[in-house]
Write a structure and sequence with these properties.
The protein is α/β, with parallel strands linked by helices and about 400 residues long. Strands 1-7-6-5-4-2-3 form a seven-stranded mixed sheet, sandwiched between helices. Strands 8-9-12-11-10 form a five-stranded mixed sheet, covered by helices on one side. The chain is globular, with a radius of gyration of 21 Å.
């Protein structure tokens, strides 16, 4: 299927799952779950259709990789057993000991833990900068810098990076630009079209969409990088299982519909919170009060379903508020059809040093919401009673 011939939702439904009408095939409308771990061949030197062993290649996983690549308008796609497995495999594939990474100072806590606690043991160095200012990214580049790592919007402060500006800096210095696009999904943002070299996703979030399947993805156009990452995908073995590939295929078909509802609800929740006397501030790219509102309009097609807000009061007040909610599940993660709420300082970013957290703005009363697709009036009523 041509990457440009059809629209987003058509690709989300059909790409990688075209019915097979060859003799003996059954014409499945939905890609079957290929559970076989190994594949027989008639001739010793000729694997059947390129399939040998499921860790190396599996038809169900391949269908998902094809579909996700089409949605990000990438040539190549690879999927993994989790978002962190995708990140780990990418780094193992493209970096060597002694290499340096310039990263956004506001990143998912698991990514920072991977950088600081795992890869640091093998002589990889990371400099964290406020990537809302492109010049700070460039100033942090050293002769050993190999890669720039960005989340936009960032987690949990919803900061945006001017991806075109960072891409220009990356190309100027011959670096690899990686953008984590989990928060907006390919429906609202396509970093490759803005100049990024590689896009990563925790497909556990919006792509899967139902809080029932773990996964990660790497999407890119550079064939040399693809071959290195694909080699390590097989060699390291952190691949997505056939059943989880099937669940993700099933979820992604409704991505466009879900993202529209997530965004609609999130904007109404953000506006409600912004007007509430017990809320100090709200951070959501779809609000005009967001400091990068104009940049959001320029480089994204929407603002997504995640917002953060700071509560007036203390840590105890924040805990009391969170534990009074009835519809919002007090849980980590995001991107599911149900609304989730969490306290980053004690949950998703607890592994980040307190001093570092507070320096970048993650206070004890900062709360992150992943707004689901429920009736928004019910969500507002729940927030209202808990705030009261």
């Amino acid at each position: 299927m041509s990457k440009n011939k059809y629209g987003f939702s058509t690709h989300a439904v059909h790409e990688g799952e075209e019915p097979d009408f060859r003799e003996g095939a059954t014409g499945d409308v939905v890609m079957p779950i290929h559970l076989s771990t190994t594949f027989a061949r008639r001739k010793v030197t000729e694997p059947t259709s390129g399939y040998e062993y499921t860790r190396s290649l599996n038809p169900t996983r391949k269908a998902l990789e094809t579909k996700l690549a089409s949605l990000e308008q990438a040539r190549f796609g690879l999927v993994f057993s989790s978002g962190l497995a995708a990140e780990t495999t990418l780094l193992l594939s493209l970096l060597k000991p002694g290499d340096h990474i310039v990263a956004f100072d506001d990143l998912y806590g698991g990514t920072k833990r991977l950088f600081n606690q795992v890869f640091s043991k093998y002589d990889y160095a990371v400099s964290y900068v406020d990537a809302t200012h492109a010049d700070e990214v460039e100033q942090a580049i050293t002769p050993s810098t190999k890669l720039i790592w960005i989340e936009s919007p960032s987690n949990p402060l919803l900061k945006l990076t001017d991806l075109k500006a960072i891409a220009a800096i990356s190309k100027k210095h011959g670096l690899i630009l990686v953008v984590d696009n989990t928060f907006l999904s390919p429906y609202f943002q396509k970093p490759l079209l803005l100049g990024a070299d590689i896009v990563v996703h925790s497909s556990t979030k919006y792509i899967g969409g139902h809080s029932d399947v773990l996964g990660g993805a790497v999407l890119l156009n550079n064939e040399a990088y693809y071959e290195k990452i694909q080699y390590h995908q097989n060699a390291v073995g952190a691949v997505l299982s056939p059943f989880d590939s099937y669940l993700t295929l099933r979820g992604v078909k409704t991505l466009a519909l879900r993202m529209e509802r997530h965004q609609l609800n999130a904007l109404k929740v953000a506006q409600f919170l912004e007007s509430h006397p017990r809320v100090k501030k709200v951070v959501y790219p779809g609000l005009k009060s967001h400091p990068q509102y104009e940049l959001a309009k320029e480089q994204t097609a929407g603002s997504g379903g995640v917002l953060s807000f700071e509560l007036e009061g203390t840590l105890t007040d924040a805990e009391t508020f969170l534990e009074r909610l009835r519809l919002f599940a007090l849980a980590e993660s995001l991107g599911g059809v149900e609304s989730l709420i969490e306290l980053p300082s004690l949950m998703t970013h607890a592994s980040v040093d307190k001093t570092v957290r507070e320096k970048i703005g993650i206070t004890d009363t900062l709360i992150r919401i992943s707004v689901g697709i429920e009736d928004v009036e019910d969500l507002l009523a729940d927030l209202s009673q808990a705030l009261a």
